[in-house]
Specification:
two-stranded antiparallel ribbon; 9 helices; 11 strands; globular
């Protein structure tokens, strides 16, 4: 006899895994934390194995949970594709997606693969760009859909941006270092890893350290997020990154009084353009639901 897994329960597990905790998943699923916990427990009972390790700092997947999330993502994508097929919603055409390299870099290949699976007739062209460029080109013809990051500081709030922008997620910035890295003692200069000064986040990080009077040296300038991750793993210094861009080998530096507090960042989709093709609007709506 075949065993059937509830797609709603699988979706809950995927969202919890992405959010990192039951409490963070609650607003995304429009459910209470206790209701989400009950759903995960029910799924664990159906599978006969533990799927999450719960701790005060959040949750993490067990090996069985990681395997099930991989299956769940495929099943949820197939479910979406089947629903659209029944609605006659087969999206076709060329679509250019411009996305900041800070947006969930570990999950980006999976996201792109899911888009291709859900829209098999869509020819997707992905460009990794700086947020400033994406925002400057929002009304031009350089891309069709853009995902950019805004630093929320100095009184700036999400409401200051275009009201038509589609908010995806908000997350904190951290000073981070490799888990094996030993910070220099007080009074000594900090080593800093940055991206080029064309990056607004890196300019902000350097400005924040300067304003706080922190002594630092730029030990390495990486060309992209991947290079910055490698420099961190090599123990070259500390860096400033948003939560979803922190590699698994690194951790937030929480207890060094030299490092100033950092604000949150917000990711959003650029607003629709006038008279854009209908299929682009449809994909934007699907992306808004998928990327949150």
């Amino acid at each position: 006899m075949s065993r059937l897994l509830d797609l709603e329960l699988l979706n809950t597990l995927v969202v919890v895994a992405d959010a990192g905790s039951l409490s963070a998943a609650a607003p995304r699923l429009y459910r209470s934390q206790s209701a989400i916990s009950d759903q995960v427990r029910k799924l664990e009972q159906l599978c006969g194995v533990s799927l999450l390790v719960r701790a005060k700092t959040g949750t993490r997947l067990t090996p069985a949970g990681e395997r099930l999330v991989a299956h769940a993502q495929k099943l949820l994508s197939l479910s979406d594709a089947a629903w659209r097929d029944m609605q006659g919603a087969q999206l076709t055409g060329d679509l250019r997606l411009a996305i900041t390299d800070y947006f969930r870099p570990h999950a980006l290949p999976i996201i792109i693969r899911h888009i291709r699976e859900q829209f098999p007739q869509l020819r997707l062209h992905v460009g990794i760009r700086k947020s400033a460029w994406i925002e400057q080109e929002a009304n031009a013809a350089s891309f069709d859909i853009g995902v950019s990051m805004t630093i929320l500081h100095n009184g700036h709030s999400p409401n200051d941006a275009s009201p038509e922008r589609i908010k995806l997620r908000r997350e904190p910035l951290h000073w981070i270092a490799d888990k094996s890295f030993a910070l220099p003692p007080a009074g000594q200069t900090l080593g800093l890893i940055v991206l080029p000064d064309t990056c607004s986040l890196q300019r902000f990080a350097v400005h924040t350290l300067d304003a706080a009077g922190v002594a630092y040296n730029v030990e390495h300038t990486a060309s992209d997020i991947g290079g910055l991750h490698l420099a961190l793993a090599a123990g070259l210094g500390i860096a400033c990154l948003n939560a979803s861009a922190v590699p698994s080998t690194a951790m937030a530096v929480e207890d060094d009084p030299r490092l100033p507090a950092l604000p949150d960042v917000e990711f959003s989709l650029a607003p629709p353009r006038r008279q854009e093709p209908a299929f682009i609007s449809d994909v934007r709506d699907m992306l808004a639901a998928h990327l949150r």
